[in-house]
Design goal:
The structure is a single chain. The chain is an alpha/beta fold. It has one domain (6-217): 3-Layer(aba) Sandwich (Rossmann fold). The chain has helices at 6-11, 17-24, 31-37, 56-64, 77-87, 123-136, 153-169, 186-195, and strands at 46-50, 69-74, 92-96, 109-115, 137-148, 200-207, 211-217. A 7-stranded mixed β-sheet has the order 3-2-1-4-5-7-6, sandwiched between helices. Helix 6 (123-136) links the parallel strand 4 (109-115) and strand 5 (137-148). The chain binds S-adenosylmethionine (SAM). S-adenosylmethionine is lined by residues 6-7, 10, 21, 51-54, 56-57, 73-76, 79, 98-100, 115-117, 120, 177.
Amino acid sequence: MKLEKMDDFFAARVDGYDEHMRTNIEGGSRFYAYTASLLPRAAGSRVLDLGCGTGLELEEYFRLCPDAAVTGIDLSDAMLQALKAKLGNRNIRLINASYFDEPLGEKTFDAAVSVESLHHFPAEQKERLYTKLHAALEENGCFVLTDYFAESEDLEKEYFRNLAHLKQEQSLPDDVFFHYDTPLTVEHEMDVLRKAGFRDVRIMQQWGESTYTVLAAV
Ligand SMILES: C[S@@+](CC[C@H](N)C(=O)[O-])C[C@H]1O[C@@H](n2cnc3c(N)ncnc32)[C@H](O)[C@@H]1O
């Protein structure tokens, strides 16, 4: 398997992406609406989306909260262009960058969301991101995470071993993001969120075998 750079991977698949996510991904026909339903509804709510892609969860969210003020961060310009074509008339600021690098400020957002984006990264990197995210949320804020998780600790380790092996085999650098699924177990993910400062972290919903919606309260 030849690893592709993260942004190239999504640019090559942007056509038909929405249909694919809604029909072929475990829970994809239902979890976008559910995830959006956990976000604040007050007009003007400031919501951050980590890895917003083409905006599937945001389409659902704007249905519930048409006057929200959303910031979406994504590495892939092609995905953001597709989002703009659908949601360009909404109050939405798009940032074409890595959420690991982008400063998020302090108490800048009422809530944050991420769907199917964070299962590509190791726990240490996520802990730094979640610490930054925790500081960027208001005191009564929350983070809604819907993602794919490893079914066991052994599998979690295996995914990371496989990725390291592929990178070594293909002489790929460590400072570039490549698309390869390395999900943590949902228990490990929740521990990382707690370590980053989130006070109340709970599973809200399971979608099939390995997809969950987790709610983390500041
Ligand atoms: C499977 S898509 C999910 C998009 C959208 N949230 C959804 O569920 O349809 C994953 C998205 O995360 C983005 N992504 C991956 N790593 C990222 C990073 N480090 N910073 C910002 N975006 C990232 C990708 O470019 C891609 O658009």
